[in-house]
Recover the amino acids of this structure.
């Protein structure tokens, strides 16, 4: 199989994964607060235009399907940071990379509220966000010239970043919050780098 065929197959696979995930979340939201328990695999597969067998090839649970978007974002977190200009200070690079990754597009409030208000989904989302820690720590270590096996800084900073993303999500969902998610997320991430950020003000 040549590279073009492999890339096409990967894109088609990702499109199917995203279609199933979007269908699962939409159906859960339509069912209301207890939506996760009411949605059936057959319904998700039908809404996504695939067979139940195809659904099972991609996901082992409804919670995993619904939180697939968060998992996919997390897998790209390390690369997003590595893609920032080499001379950019760490705090600016992290904030720019994370905001671009997690706010383009801006999260769907109804979907995020469903995830954060359903224990099973919140647990799956936590697992998804945690996927970002390893790649982020490696990217931070590469940018700062530290050894992730010996130095705690990369791993602790990566864990703080993923924690800030979750806190920002909860704060953004609070009634009456007029901010964009990008603004809330920037404020949360700035808490990790107060010394560096204060120099810019």
């Amino acid at each position: 199989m040549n590279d073009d065929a492999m890339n096409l197959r990967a894109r088609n696979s990702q499109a199917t994964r995203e279609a199933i995930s979007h269908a699962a979340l939409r159906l859960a939201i339509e069912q209301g607060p207890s939506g996760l328990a009411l949605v059936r695999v057959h319904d998700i597969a039908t809404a996504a235009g695939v067979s139940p067998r195809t659904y099972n090839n991609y996901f082992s649970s409804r919670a995993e399907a619904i939180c697939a978007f968060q998992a996919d974002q997390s897998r790209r977190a390390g690369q997003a940071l590595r893609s920032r200009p080499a001379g950019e200070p760490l705090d600016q690079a992290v904030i720019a990379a994370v905001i671009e990754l997690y706010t383009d597009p801006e999260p769907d409030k109804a979907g995020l509220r469903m995830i954060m208000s359903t224990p099973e989904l919140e647990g799956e989302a936590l697992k998804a966000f945690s996927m970002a820690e390893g790649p982020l720590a490696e990217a931070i270590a590469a940018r700062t010239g530290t050894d992730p096996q010996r130095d705690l800084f990369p791993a602790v900073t990566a864990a703080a970043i993923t924690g800030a993303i979750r806190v920002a999500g909860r704060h953004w969902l609070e009634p009456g919050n007029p901010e964009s998610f990008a603004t809330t997320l920037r404020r949360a991430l700035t808490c990790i780098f107060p010394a560096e950020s204060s120099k810019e003000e």
About this structure: Residues 10 and 142 are 28 Å apart (CA to CA). Residues 196-201 have pLDDT under 50 and may be disordered. The chain has 14 helices and no strands. The two ends are 54 Å apart (CA to CA).
